[in-house]
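Q: I have 296 residues here and want to know how they pack in 3D. Can you give me a structure?
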Amino acid sequence: MKTHTYKTVRKLALQADVYGADMKSGDPKPAVVWIHGGALIMGSRAKIAPDQRDRYVDAGFVVIAIDYRLAPETKLSAIADDVEDAFKWLRNSGEELLGINPSRVGVIGHSAGGYLTLLAGHRVHPAPQALVSFYGYGDLVGNWYSNPDPFYNTFDQVTDDDAHRAVGERELVDGAADPRRGDFYLWCRQKGLWPLKVGGHDPASESDWFTPYSPAQNIVARQYPPMLLLHGDADTDVPYGQLVHMERQLADAGIDHDFITIPGGPHGFDHAPDIQVSIEVSEAFDRVIAFFRQHV
C-alpha cells in the first residue's frame, strides 16, 4: 500500500491509499475508487474492510481509498468538491503515478460513501465507468433525513451541548479517532437536522439548494453510468425505500442498472454476523466483481 496526497486545503492534506498497483506490469490496470461511509461526519479511508479490498485486488483492480473533509466543520458543497478533485487527480496523474488506466475507473461506497458514489455519477466529468452503492441514498431532503427519526429517538436523547462538544471548528478528514462524533450524528437524526448541519442550508426553505447534490434529482436518461445498488430490507438507518425509489427512476430513464436486495439485511449488512445474511452477502460480492469486470 502507498499513500498519496491528492489535494491540500489550508495545510490539511487529503490523501488516497492505493492497493494493488504494479508499475512493473507495463499495462495500465483498471481501478476502483473506494469512498468510506459515516454520514459524512465520521469514518476514514482506513476503514476499508481488508477482505473486501483483497477481493477487488485479486480480481485485477487497483483500489484507491480516498479522504474527503467531514461535516459539520466542512459543508456539503466543499465535500463534493473534494470528491471531484480526487477524480481530477486520477485523470491527470493516475497512469504515471499509480499505473492505472484513468478511463477504466469504477466507484464503490457504503452508506454516505454510497451516496458520494452516486453523486460522482453526475458531478464527475467524464463520469466513472460504473458505480456500486452499498445502502447509499439519492435523496437528501426527504422526511427520513429532515424530520426527527423514530428509530433513533428510541435511544437516549443527546443534548444540544453534548452534540456540539462532539465536533469543533477545525477541518478534518479522519472521523474515526473520536467516537463522540457519533453523538453529533445521533443528535442530528433525533432532531431531523442532518441536511441543515451538513449542507448549511434549510431544506424546508432552501430545498432547491440541495438539488445539485441529490443524485435522485439528477438522473438524466442514458447519461448516468451503469449502476449496481445493494440494500438490506431491514435497514434502520437508510430506509430500504430510498433505493427502491431510485431503482424505479433508473428504470424509467433507461439506465443500465441492477438492484440486489439482502433479505433481513441491516445497515452495514456486509459486516453482519447473521449466517444467512453472510451467505447472501458473499453471493452479492461475486456479482459486484462481475459488474466491475463487465463495465470497467
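Q: Anything worth noting?
A: The longest strand covers residues 100-110. The longest helix spans residues 76-98.
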